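Lab channel / #folding
Pinned by the channel admin:
"Please post every new chain as: sequence first, then the structure tokens as a reply. Keep commentary short and put observations after the output so the thread stays searchable."

First post following the new format, from NK:
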Amino acid sequence: MKRTIIFPISLSLISVIFAKGQSNINSNNHITDSQDIRTYSLLLSYISTDTQDLKLAEAEHNSVSNIGEKHFLYMPIARGAAPEPTANYSWDRSLPSVYNKEATQGSPFLLFLYVPGLVVTDSYTVLNIHNYLYNYDKMSGNLLVRKNNDSAIAVDKESVKSFCLKTDKGGVIFMRVATINNSEFFQVLYKGSKYSFYKLYKSKFINAKQMTNGYQKDGNDYDEYKDIVTYYLVDEKNEISHIFELRRKSVKKIFGSENSDVEKYFKDHKYDEITETFIANLTAELNK
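Reply from TO:
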């Protein structure tokens, strides 16, 4: 049965933050955009404040560590009975092979442990609950919350507009973005009035599939959570989103009308690697 969180009474803080400058905004879309930017600034301020005592180095003490177990897989053969069919054999197919299954690689969780955070509801209510800890499930795309040592539960996506997870060195901010897909949470890499830069996480589980002929091995001998990320640029004024890759050609293509400014930026940073930071800085320049 699906479990969701019933959010408590809103804090007065958000009304103070949003009060300034709202009187001159007539469009509902503009109001929403302004609220999103102000909310993002609030979350950014929260994760930037050096008040977090929790260290990610303590991950081995947490139940969501990506460390798996090691064990040996083998197929016993009863005396007088033919072996059951198997995909792994020794070189002359007389004995099924034995191999060591290594520790699971990766994790379905964004962080190795649950951390403090802020949650902004769909009505722009800010929640700062001191005994709630959060994480993000990359496989389901859900915000997870736990209280004390209770089991974690998934928060109803439609109840949340944005949230942040605070670590010992900053943190991450997620937001639902209607221009892209209002049913997903996107990590905010840059939020601006003209352009915004987002990242979507997906993770899939891949079973170990090691094959061997006794001499050579093919495939992985470990289970793996493999991340798949997609990058989006949102043109805020025209309400259009573009998927792109961290490649020069792809980046230049999505900016179109800003081509001359993009060309200049690439020329000024011709030796820089095309990373998330590079794109975030470029997006910031184009928002000036």
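NK: Confidence is low (pLDDT under 50) at residues 1-27, 56-91.
TO: also worth noting, Residues 13-68+86-244 form one domain.
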